[in-house]
């Protein structure tokens, strides 16, 4: 509104400047976004911190990468800087896979359809058990182990980095190719038209929190 002290790059400030949307609708949408993120992100990060406390190897790798990329611990972690910390992003993705707070995705069939020989009537609720699939060895090697390396692309690593990570987990290329083939299974933010609209905000919060 008038006389706002919000910075120009504030999401709410940008939304409030839209002329075709009622201000009350924007405020309600903003509250929904905030409340949803507080509940889900706090629960997710609690699980992540608990697991990282049991993974000193991963902690050490995160520290090495962040120290090399940022140096100064007070430096802000920007989206540009995220390109220099692939292990941090991989840790987040591995947490989505093995520590998901969203065990399944719900969809309703808009019409009668045939799925692998089964006739599904229209308006039938269907639950995709994505979390269970993420813990099956048919989809992920050593599924119960916390291995951020499975989300690292060997092509994006230096020779030294590749050798360092392979000394810990083995053939990184094979691990990465398997993960790419199963990437649709870890859908903590859902997918399609009903996917989480605050995904990028949530991801930035998670990465910054882990880096700190």
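^ structure tokens above, recovered residues below v
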């Amino acid at each position: 509104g008038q006389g706002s002290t919000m910075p120009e790059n504030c999401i709410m400030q940008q939304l409030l400047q839209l002329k075709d949307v009622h201000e009350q609708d924007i405020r309600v949408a903003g509250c929904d976004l905030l409340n949803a993120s507080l509940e889900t992100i706090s629960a997710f990060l609690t699980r992540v911190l608990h697991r990282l406390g049991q993974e000193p190897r991963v902690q050490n790798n995160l520290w090495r990468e962040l120290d090399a990329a940022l140096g100064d611990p007070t430096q802000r972690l920007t989206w540009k800087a995220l390109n220099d910390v692939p292990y941090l992003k991989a840790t987040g993705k591995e947490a989505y896979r093995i520590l998901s707070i969203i065990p399944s995705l719900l969809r309703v069939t808009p019409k009668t359809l045939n799925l692998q020989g089964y006739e599904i009537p229209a308006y039938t609720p269907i639950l995709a058990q994505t979390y269970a699939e993420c813990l099956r060895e048919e989809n992920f090697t050593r599924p119960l182990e916390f291995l951020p390396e499975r989300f690292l692309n060997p092509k994006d690593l230096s020779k030294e980095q590749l050798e360092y990570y392979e000394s810990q987990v083995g053939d990184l290329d094979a691990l990465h190719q398997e993960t790419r083939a199963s990437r649709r299974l870890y859908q903590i933010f859902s997918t399609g038209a009903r996917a989480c609209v605050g995904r990028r905000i949530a991801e930035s919060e998670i990465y910054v929190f882990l880096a700190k």
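The longest helix spans residues 23-52.
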